């Protein structure tokens, strides 16, 4: 059945899904929409937002649900129900962090944007990342003791945050940095990154 992932030409919320699809060797169409997405296209999205994932006639929304779905049938889904819940908890916390970045991304006023960036770089990142660091260090470098779909989410959100904040936030957090490096060098992911090259945004 034809698989399609729709998103913008950006890492954002779709890159972890792209990474999982490449790592698990699934063929899919990587559909990239312009930021000036036409109203006719937006109106066809179930909740007006991207990413969406299609399999034949069926459509999935919500990036975390899509990531978990495309990781099924692979070694990226934990078996123990407790670990399933632990890694999902980590995913929701990674998104709690991302939701602190979004107002900065959307802010148009240069002065306000500067203030928001300062707060993110000086406080918010450290609040979350010292805790991610501790969680990873206490569990052998992974949220649930071994590699799961949630490390892909962490890597993607670090990369998206770096892109918008023009930083390399993982550099201060060795266990987080190790996860990011691990994901980027996985078979399938490494070749995809080399092929697509870096993302660029207008600041
Ligand atoms: N909770 C949703 C959030 C989706 C979302 O915020 N999508 C943004 C891009 S990252 C979007 O489509 N923005 C365009 C719009 O809202 O018009 C998910 O995780 O998929």
Automatic annotation (TrEMBL):
InterPro entries: Glutathione-S-Trfase_C-like (IPR010987), Glutathione-S-Trfase_C_sf (IPR036282), Glutathione_S-Trfase (IPR040079), Glutathione_S-Trfase_N (IPR004045), GST_C (IPR004046), GST_superfamily (IPR050213), Thioredoxin-like_sf (IPR036249). This is glutathione transferase. It catalyses: RX + glutathione = an S-substituted glutathione + a halide anion + H(+). Keywords: Transferase. Pfam families: GST_C_3, GST_N. One of its GO terms (molecular function) is glutathione transferase activity. Homodimer. Its EC number is 2.5.1.18. GO terms for biological process: glutathione metabolic process. It is an enzyme of class 2 (transferase).
